[in-house]
Design goal:
This protein has 242 residues and is α/β, with parallel strands linked by helices. It is built from 8 helices and 11 strands. α1 packs across α7 (214-227) and α5 (107-123) runs parallel beside α6 (147-159).
């Protein structure tokens, strides 16, 4: 497959490495950055089979619309723009396009989401337990809480409605009424997420720790290959049949 890589930061370079090493004959035909974006035409973009986008929240929606306008399927791993998700999904349908979005492309994280759902269903009736979510990422990450932490909280809200909402908190606390999320930023941390339920007598924790960006990049490339030839808006649960 011919890939247009939108964003050439740390994730972009990791995706480039995965594509170079996968032995499938895939190639990156465009490396689009903030500096050269205005020099890339729609016709240039149309030469790609698929685009993979990892940029910044303020640029993501424009990049998605650009690809959908060109008729190029797009995989985006940028987070922090999901408040416009319905608008983007509607535009994708209007253009008969293909969009794949995910707060996290790691297969392990998406299994973590499913285990989180099961644990939340068990905790719905266990009123003695309070909950907390913690996430830790590298200092360069712009959005906080992370998209993965928010998705984790949304899964709990859907499954355990005794928790009314999630709230970002500056320090770790537990609650029986809502889901506190505390975000830490430390150098060189790819991403760690933890859900904890605590009672007066014990604590249950569920943790996913990424050791590198490799898993995210491999998931994004797999999503790109899967998306080609499809129409609509998709998530990791579609790719993994979860």
């Amino acid at each position: 497959m011919k890939v247009a890589l939108i964003g050439y930061g740390k994730m972009g370079k990791e995706i480039e490495k995965v594509i170079a090493e996968n032995g499938r004959g895939d190639e990156i035909i465009l490396r689009i950055t903030q500096q050269n974006r205005t020099h890339i035409s729609i016709e240039d973009l149309k030469a790609a089979d698929v685009a993979i986008e990892f940029t910044q929240p303020e640029a993501a929606v424009e990049n998605i619309f650009w690809c959908l306008e060109a008729g190029v399927p797009i995989v985006t791993g940028t987070t922090g723009w999901f408040n416009r998700l319905e608008e983007v999904r509607k535009y994708c349908i209007e253009k008969n396009g293909a969009l794949f979005y995910a707060p996290n492309f790691s297969i392990g994280v998406n299994i973590f989401f499913e285990v989180n759902k099961k644990l939340a269903s068990l905790m719905q009736s266990q009123m003695q337990y309070s909950v907390c979510i913690e996430e830790t990422h590298h200092t360069e990450k712009k959005d906080a809480p992370s998209g993965t932490a928010i998705k984790t909280a949304e899964v709990i809200l859907e499954t355990a409605p005794r928790f009314e909402q999630w709230k970002s908190e500056p320090e770790k606390i537990y609650s029986q009424k809502y889901i506190p999320i505390v975000a830490y930023r430390q150098p060189h941390v790819p991403g760690t997420h933890m859900v904890a339920y605590k009672s007066a007598v014990d604590e249950i924790t569920l943790t996913h720790q990424a050791f590198s960006r490799r898993g995210f990049a491999e998931g994004a490339v797999a999503a790109a290959r899967w998306l080609i030839g499809r129409k609509g808006a998709f998530e990791m649960k579609d790719l993994l049949s979860l």
